[in-house]
Amino acid sequence: MCFKVVIPARYASSRLPGKPLLDLGGKPMVVRVAERALLSGADEVVVATDHPQVLEVVRRHGLHALLTSSDHASGTDRLAEVVALSGWNEDELIVNVQGDEPLIDPALIVRTASCLAASGADIATVAHPVADAADFFNPNIVKVVVSARGDALYFSRAPIPYARDHFAREAGGETLPPAMVAYRHIGLYAYRAHFLRTYSRLAPSPLESIEALEQLRALWHGFRISVAFADHLPAAGVDTAEDARRMQEWFKKV
To answer: What is the pTM of this model?
Structure first.
């Protein structure tokens, strides 16, 4: 199986400006991410950035980078530009690895690409069982309901599927029913190149706006999203200054 990895690395971040260049044990974070992605065996790993400094740093470390527009509304749009700039064919499999996940598991990248290849879907993503009721009811943890053939039926910040009778008996929602399987969504995606070329032309959906979940646009327009399952929760990424300090401490120990 051949697949490519694209790492969107936007320089401007409201919570952590210049985040791709955060020093982690002597290397910029975006370089750490790209090195992890290379361990997946991808036939090409591309950093897609909107800033010349990130471009120069990545190339200085011997890695492939492209300068993309600063006007993209999402990382998916940035991937679409990479597809166009690179001239990749319609059936190319492309895994989107976030530029703030320096501990990404290469095996999970492979699993996501394999799920897309085997399913014939337009998109593949990842989920992991939710075992804790607090996580299930947490709107910051996105849940996904999956069909019998392994496709996403819906993503929501709400607690889905909702165990009506169990939660009626237990008003506080302190436990989950023993027989119920719920999944948290993990934001790792693989796409077919033809979908990325189509995505920018899709009208935003009402559900996407209500839930603030971009992937609902694809479901709204009838595209298939196949779901792979992770053996364990991936390591947390870097979103805040506190996350950055934690990650820097981790890299001091390795």
So the answer is: 0.92
